[in-house]
Structure formats: structure tokens, C-alpha cells
Amino acid sequence: MKNKYNIACLGEILWDILPDQELPGGAPMNVAYHLQKLSQQVAMVSATGTDGHGRRLLQLMHNMQLSNAYVQTNNTYATGKVNAWMDAHSDMQYDILYPVAWDHIAWNDSLEDLLSGDDLQYIVFGSLMARHEVSRNTLRKALQSPAVKVLDINLRAPWYSRETLEWLMSSCQLLKLNVGELELISAWYGSWSAHEDQVQALSSRFDIPTIVVTLGSKGCMGYIDGAFYYQEGQPVKVADTIGSGDAFLAGFLVSRLQQRSPAWSLAYANALGALVASRHGGCPEYHPADIYSMMKVPQHT
To answer: How far apart are CA 206 and CA 173, in angstroms?
Structure first.
């Protein structure tokens, strides 16, 4: 019987090489991990090399109960790696190696079947998948899917351009970005003093009905169907910020699939992002009940 997936995450799976350890990562895989923990049927679309790092990633996905049915094996390029470190402001800095296996995700019949399926509700992708022509062409075909396209923009210099980002933003119905990315991109189109004006400018220009912005320790904001919603920050002791934004996005998507209110969805997403920031790595172990204990709104709203 064919597996039925309701969410597909496309793009990089890799190892974050920290000063003292190696952690599995890549924004799409982080999102997929949290979605799976929250009882979604997730297809991770990516590629690894034939090396030990690739075999370890596939084994970890198996241990996470995360399907690797759409993870291709590339005989030419190595599994992705990122040299990562925390700067003096507790922000993560990244050096993303290039080219690697996930730059060469090939379009095939199984991907076409997955992405055209009636059960698929969301396709999650980021700007990094567009940095090489092979994966970029696969993404271009994937974006023809009738599913809701979710752009987790994830700007990582030097791997983006205005032209590419404009193409991606014009292709999505839900945009997630952090406040620094919001300020950078909106400045291309004008000067606004308020973040709300910056968000509305992007929503109008690219016809994006839902935009969510993470504000770090200040929480988050959402622009959903013409209305703004806000959620204050969660006070936690930060272990590292790897994957906290990815966890936020997963929490938001699950809440929307459950037809929760925008305010509830942002509170839940914010709590999950804070929970992950309090632990090491983008895919830490936790129980879904831990999220509710951190939420600042009643669980029943």
C-alpha cells in the first residue's frame, strides 16, 4: 500500500560541525523531525553521499521514525556539512560547504507522484535548495504542486540572490522569516519604520496571505489573512539557537492543520521554538506535552 504523506520537506540534510560535536541538521530536516514528532506523515526529499556521514544520517532518520524513501544517494558528491559556531551575541554562524549531495536532488517519477498527490497539504522549502541548478530545477517542478507552498527563507550568505528570492516569494502562500531577513528584503522595495509595514509590503507585492516573523527573545508576529497577531517571547536559558526557527515553523503548521486560531498557533509555535533553543541541536529529544507546559495561552483556546 502506498504511503500517504500530508507534508513534504524539500532541501538540505547535513551535519552541523560544531567546535565540540557533530549534530544532524539542515532546516528542512529539522522541520520534518518536529512534524513527525507531532504525528504528521512527512516525506523528506533530499540527497546524501555514499560516505559514512550519509549512512549515519539515514540511520538517524530511521531512528527518528522519519521516512527516507525520498532521500536519494549520490555517488559523486559528499553528504552535506556545515561548520557552525555561536558568536558573542548567542547567534549561530554558518559556513555551508558547496557543492554537496543535496545540491543534486534529481527530479524523478516518484517525486512527481508524491508532489501531485491529493493527500499532500504542505510543501516546505528554503532558499538554499535553489543555490545549484540541479536542485533548483527540481524545486521549480515541485512548486507546480497544488499543495500550499511554505517558504522558510533561511538566508545564508552568499547563497542567495534578489532574483531567486523574488521567484520563491512569488511561488509561496506562507512565508516564514526572522526579523533580520524581513528588514533586509523589505528594504529592496522601500523604507518603512514599522515591521508591520514591511510585512504588508511583502504580502502585497508577492500576494502572500500568511507571513510569520520570528523576533528572537521578543517572540513572534503573524500576518494572517489581513490581520496582525503577536506573541511575546519565552524566557529560557539558551543552549543554542540551531533549529529553533525550524521548530517554530513545524509548530505553526501543525496548529494550522488542526484548524487552531492564529493566536493559538503562534503561541504553540513560539513555545516549541523556545523549547528547542533551550536544548542542544536542531533535533533534540522531547515530549509533545513539554510544549504545552511552556505556552502562555490556555491550551483549550
So the answer is: 9
